[in-house]
Design a protein that fits this description.
Elements lengths: L1 H36 L6 E5 L6 H25 L1 H29 L4 E2 L3 E11 L8 E7 L7 E5 L12 E8 L5 E8 L9
Antiparallel strand pairs: 1-5, 1-7, 2-6, 3-4, 3-6, 4-5, 6-7
Helix pairs in contact: 1-3, 2-3
């Protein structure tokens, strides 16, 4: 009887540890398959550049993680491992479910983008990003977009974009996501106008 119970506990633990990550990986594969079957439309995320307000703004993610770790260790010492395991298991499953929900939200957000009027953005700076397992790389542009109070950034894999210099302008076709965010659907480098001689 105890051997059967022990085997059941081991099997349940294995499912609890492995099932949530496997579910998320499978969901990502399904969403990538669905995206490949839809008409391909270029949609590059245009994201705001975070501007920290203070030193605390830079440090708070690390402080929050350190505080959470200390709380977990103190809880383990006070209550014991056996009493904490159900809570740890619940948090583990919820974290993977939250990641899966984020994948679904990101996929749905790029369906039926709403086109916006074209804008002329000014290049603030640019940075080359080498290809990696997360993406093809390209040129990370930092832009000042009219109507947007903070600078925004977009990653474009186009050799022509790498020739831009700070101060150059380009015309952007923008679209808004179903839930949030902006996307670049097309761009065109605008020629620099020669300064008129005095």
């Amino acid at each position: 009887m105890s051997l059967t119970l022990s085997a059941w506990v081991q099997q349940r633990t294995a499912w609890l540890v492995l099932a949530p990550p496997i579910f998320m990986v499978g969901l990502r594969s399904v969403l990538e398959f669905l995206a490949s079957r839809e008409p391909q439309m270029l949609a590059l995320p245009l994201t705001p550049v975070p501007i920290p307000g203070s030193m605390l703004g830079l440090l708070w993610p690390g402080l929050a993680l350190l505080t959470a770790l200390v709380l977990v260790i103190l809880t383990l010492f006070k209550l014991g491992w056996r009493r904490v395991v159900p809570s740890v298991a619940l948090v583990w499953v919820l974290l993977w479910l939250a990641g899966s929900a984020t994948l679904i939200q990101r996929h749905l957000n790029q369906l039926d983008l709403q086109a916006l009027p074209d804008v002329v953005a000014q290049t603030l700076t640019l940075q080359f990003k080498p290809p990696s397992s997360r993406g093809p790389g390209g040129t990370q542009l930092y832009l000042q977009v009219p109507g947007m109070p903070v600078p925004h950034t977009v990653l474009i894999d186009d050799p022509q974009v790498a020739t831009l210099k700070p101060g150059d302008t380009l015309s952007l076709s923008l679209a808004q996501g179903r839930f949030s965010g902006f996307f670049v659907t097309a761009w065109q480098i605008r020629p620099n106008l020669p300064e008129s001689s005095l």
